[in-house]
From TrEMBL:
The lineage of its organism: Bacteria, Pseudomonadati, Pseudomonadota, Alphaproteobacteria, Rhodospirillales. It comes from Azospirillum oryzae. This is ThuA-like domain-containing protein. Residues 83-227 form the ThuA-like domain.
Length: 232
């Protein structure tokens, strides 16, 4: 299998500079022949996905129901979100039918009323338990140097958020772990099969600077190729 990879990037949400970072991700993936369509219209994007022509779905968004804390009240009208049954079916059908899925950073927090999202992605945020220290220096350390995504890559330190205490799918084996200075280490990069599709999850990527770190850039390009079963 060769040629251009068509990618749909679902993005948008609060507390993260997606408007700057998502186009940067587009440029990074373009380096390995990935042509991306970027949208913050989740349902509309998934309708387009269902019509065909895409090889990869990238979820780089922060879209959940925004329940609980009133600090979210000013943002609920624009950004609170519950994925429709049709959207869930479209996303599941795409990956299960052989499409690639790349979930970045806040993808773990998305779709919080859809339990199957954790099973598909391999991990999910748990409100009231999951957390991260304030954004600062974090170090990603490869733990499986035999996998194509991490082979030959050194540990690297970047300013980001180290997610921890989230829910992991049973039997998940991380390719890399991440920890903030003085904090506990948690899985930060993993892969899994989902039906006929391939899934990569990467919990880093708060902003453009994180995505563009030379080692992180390598991981992202390899992730897109691996998820689409293309040579690395």
């Amino acid at each position: 299998m060769s040629g251009t990879i068509r990618n749909l990037i679902l993005t948008g949400g609060i507390g993260h500079p997606f408007a700057d970072a998502a186009p940067a991700l587009d440029r990074i993936l373009d380096g390995v022949g990935v042509v991306s369509t970027v949208t913050d219209d989740i349902e509309g994007g998934l309708e387009a996905l269902d019509r065909g022509g895409f090889d990869l779905l990238t979820v780089y968004a922060l879209r959940w129901r925004m329940l609980g804390s009133e600090k979210y009240a000013p943002h609920r009208e624009r950004w609170a979100f519950s994925l429709s049954p049709a959207g869930r079916e479209r996303l599941s059908r795409f990956v299960g039918g052989g499409g690639g899925l790349l979930g970045l950073h806040t993808a773990l927090i998305c779709f919080d009323d859809w339990p199957e999202w954790r099973d598909l992605l391999g991990g999910a945020w748990v409100w009231g338990r999951s957390a991260h220290p304030p954004r600062g220096p974090v170090t990603l350390i490869p733990t499986d140097v035999s996998h194509p995504l991490t082979a030959g890559l050194p540990p690297f330190t970047v300013t980001d958020e180290a997610y921890g205490d989230f829910d992991l799918a049973e039997g998940l084996q991380p390719l890399a772990i991440v920890a903030a200075e003085g904090g506990s280490a948690w899985p930060a990069l993993w892969v899994r099969d989902a039906g006929l599709g391939r899934v990569v999850a990467d919990t880093l990527g708060h902003d453009r600077a994180s995505l563009e770190h030379p080692v992180h850039r390598q991981i992202l390009m390899r992730a897109a190729l691996w998820a689409c079963r293309r040579p690395l």
